[in-house]
UniProtKB/TrEMBL annotation:
Keywords: ATP-binding, Nucleotide-binding. Transmembrane segments: none annotated. This is Cellulose synthase operon protein YhjQ. The keyword Nucleotide-binding applies. The keyword Transmembrane helix does not apply. GO terms for molecular function: ATP binding; ATP hydrolysis activity. It comes from the Bacteria. GO terms for biological process: negative regulation of cell division. One of its GO terms (cellular component) is cytosol. Pfam families: CBP_BcsQ.
Length: 262
């Protein structure tokens, strides 16, 4: 199986929406997909069509060692198996962070218990990097997708965190989300970001801004179904195709050590 961590270094990047969309699109391509919510905000399920916020999930296993981490799972209408983070109080959240800090391989060991097909996919939506959740996901991922909008503050934060991301996840790609080519500032920011990244971390894909996306979410539908010919839908399908090809071509559990996706 291949593990993909979806991270961001700033808030409001659209990371969770993108994670849910990719999970569904990969499932539609015939992949066995497990989507993990490793963000205490516990919102991935809502994007995958689960009513309400799941009260229990991964966090409860972190709080109680006798609870299996995959005890609370859901399967959405698209066939994606979803594991929520679960609801936590402030004190419980601190306890979860402390356990993850004390056991750096907790997530890797948990994922080793999964019995997925060789070409199955585990897609992890994480808390904002740096965090204990994001660090766990990045360390065990075959591929790390870092999502950023082409805005000055978000890109500056990404550049500042780049060394840490490179250390924790060798196979790192940047996804530029909510791109609006009509804005000169965004083009300038992208040029500066590309220069800061250099040749070692390419800008893998770009997803254009589409104002219809929040409406699709509110209706419980997908933008690529509602408006299949829009630029954003085309971008999402292209990103899913790229990931699908990488999953089919990269040796299992070796992508992080051997670099480039194929």
């Amino acid at each position: 199986m291949k593990t993909i961590a979806v991270v961001s270094t700033a808030g409001g990047t659209g990371r969770t929406t993108l994670s849910a969309a990719l999970a569904v699109l990969l499932a539609r391509r015939g992949r066995q997909v497990v989507a993990l919510d490793l963000d205490p905000q516990n919102m991935l399920g809502a994007h995958l069509g689960i009513d309400g916020l799941a009260p229990a999930g991964i966090a409860q296993a972190l709080l109680d060692e006798t609870v299996a981490w995959h005890t609370h799972t859901w399967r959405n209408a698209e066939g994606v198996l979803f594991v929520p983070y679960g609801a936590v109080s402030l004190a419980q959240g601190a306890h979860c962070d402390a356990r993850l800090a004390a056991e750096p391989q907790w997530l890797a060991n948990a994922l080793a218990q999964l019995d997925l097909l060789r070409d199955g996919v585990v897609l992890i939506d994480t808390a904002r990097y740096p965090s204990q959740q994001a660090a766990q996901a990045v360390r065990c991922a075959d591929l790390v997708l870092c999502v950023t909008p082409p805005e000055p503050a978000a890109c500056a934060t990404l550049v500042a965190r780049l060394d840490g991301l490179r250390r924790d996840g060798a196979n790192l790609r940047i996804i530029v989300n909510r791109l609006n080519p009509a804005r000169d500032m965004q083009r300038d920011v992208l040029a500066m970001l590309a220069a800061a990244l250099g040749d070692g971390v390419p800008l893998a894909q770009r997803v254009h801004l589409d104002v219809a996306l929040p409406e699709s979410f509110a209706r419980g539908t997908w933008l690529f179904d509602d408006a299949p010919h829009s630029q954003a839908s085309h971008d999402l399908q292209g990103l899913a195709n790229w990931l699908d090809a990488w999953v089919g071509g990269a040796p299992a559990n070796h992508a992080r050590r051997h670099g480039e996706p194929t």
